Amino acid sequence: MNNFDFKNPTKIIFGKDTIEKVKEEIPQDAKVLLLYGGGSIKKNGIYDQVKTALANVEVVEFGGIPANPEYSVLIEALKVIKDQNITYLLAVGGGSVIDGTKFLSAAALFDGDTPWDILTKNIRTEKGMPFGTVLTLPATGSEMNSGAVITRAETKEKLAMGGPGLFPEFSILDPQVITSIPQRQLANGLTDAFTHVLEQYMTYPIGAILQDRFAESILQTLVEVAPTVIKDPTDYKAASNFMWSCTMALNGLIQKGVPGDWAVHAIGHELTALFGIDHARTLAVIAPSHYKFNFEDKKEKLAQYGERVWNITEGSIDDKAYAAIEKTVDFFHELGIDTKLSDYTKDYEGTAEEISKRFTDRGWTGLGEHQTLSPDKVEKIVKMAY
What we know:
Distance between the termini: 37 Å
CATH class of the largest domain: Mainly Alpha
CATH topology of the largest domain: Dehydroquinate synthase-like, alpha domain
Largest sheet: 6 strands, parallel
Structural class: alpha/beta
Order of helices and strands: EEHEHEHHEEEEHHHHHHHHH
Number of domains: 2
Helix content: 40-55%
Number of strands: 8
Strand content: 5-15%
């Protein structure tokens, strides 16, 4: 196992009817900017619960943060922060709203003239404006980590940012919120969390026995609860295990002491930026091809995953590894997630070359756990995913 440091300062408030506890977490003298997305929280009762809890705090609202948090929209919110002298941010939403809030947390205290530099120049945020979250869609794990991904439509870019100053101070996780989530988004959430684990697990053995077991337990739990979550999101047992699995998949714990990959995300982000494909679905498109292309490097962990998660016991390491890839594809298909780029767009020709060029221009010449995945190899992986 590799050396590591681990610190996660986010307070988690988990369980039924916990949204009202937001009033206990925000300073009474704060001026709060309440951030949310398309307005579904006003239909499912979450907005009313939050507003009731914040009855004694000064609140300004900003809605309309899109599914891929858009830079131009966030800049409008940043103006509100500065004009209204906001001191505290509250994200009520899924990963997109929380990621957008992280950008605002960083941008509110940013010294530079162009906040986009935070992303293009990989500026780590050591201190941001304090914020909390009320999670409405389990998927990204953004409620308990310090990373975010922001989209800029005018340049067709989707870039990551982060830093120790971007952990939420608290996050409220009430599994009851999933009862109003559309089936498509539930499937996305399951796929997103599943792939988050794979990015930290599907590398090569390093003797991190406990870390492997942590990762496998999350994968096993997602596989077990997925059918119930999709069929009956009112099932609290399934909902609670789903929500906590999504959080645990990307709160930093399972990545400590082990190598990480993240090439699937880097490539997937480009598919979202170019075509507007749901983030989770881009991961399902790229992951199978990525594992096949890098089979020799990953086959030991693929076989282990096949044995422990999918109960594949017959055959050689190669046999088990290939079967594990197919089981993963089958799982995505069972969720209603297509796994080829051509399932989402007929304009895919030239996509691989465009992504390869973007990575070259950015200096992203060595992705993956071995940092050997060059842009020309990325091009081949994307073509395999057509």
